[in-house]
């Protein structure tokens, strides 16, 4: 799908203000409300807009501790990777899981209440993941910035 400048303006606004009304969005991007609605529908149908969410404040949700966990598996066979990926998706505290190129096979982003809570997560979930040979955890001291907006 080719995105024109109007599509890009729509996407930029929606990434920052997902609850904006269609009338407000149309005004911001210089379209009629009906034309704006059609474009947003097309962007949704084409999968460019994958969904809408509420972004929660981790501190207010009592999950201020960010831990990045590098995991090296015991092997690279498809069944080892598949078993790990299926299991890690069931851990409620894991916010992201990335298959990596480099020294670690996977990089996880985990949110915890504090170091004691991370110890619980480690014991209850991470230490039981299938195929894990090594695990290294790094605690973020400060989040300098965070965004969910993709450049359009």
TrEMBL record:
Pfam families: AsnC_trans_reg (PF01037), HTH_24 (PF13412). One of its GO terms (cellular component) is cytosol. Keywords: DNA-binding, Transcription, Transcription regulation. PROSITE patterns: HTH_ASNC_1, HTH_ASNC_2. SMART domains: HTH_ASNC. GO terms for biological process: regulation of DNA-templated transcription; response to amino acid. One of its GO terms (molecular function) is sequence-specific DNA binding. Residues 3-77 form the HTH asnC-type domain. PANTHER family: LEUCINE-RESPONSIVE REGULATORY PROTEIN, TRANSCRIPTIONAL REGULATOR AZLB. This is Winged helix-turn-helix transcriptional regulator.
């Amino acid at each position: 799908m080719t995105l024109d400048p109007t599509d890009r303006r729509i996407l930029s606004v929606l990434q920052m203000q997902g609850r904006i009304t269609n009338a407000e969005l149309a005004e911001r991007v210089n379209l009629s409300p009906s034309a704006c609605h059609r474009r947003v529908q097309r962007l949704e149908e084409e999968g460019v807009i994958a969904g809408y969410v509420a972004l929660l404040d981790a501190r207010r949700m009592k999950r201020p501790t960010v831990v990045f966990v590098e995991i090296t598996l015991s092997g690279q066979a498809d069944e080892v990777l598949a078993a790990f990926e299926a299991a890690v998706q069931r851990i409620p505290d894991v916010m992201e899981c990335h298959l990596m190129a480099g020294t670690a096979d996977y990089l996880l982003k985990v949110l915890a209440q504090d170091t004691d809570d991370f110890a619980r997560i480690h014991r209850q979930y991470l230490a039981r993941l299938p195929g894990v040979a090594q695990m290294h955890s790094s605690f973020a001291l400060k989040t300098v910035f965070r965004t969910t907006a993709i450049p359009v």
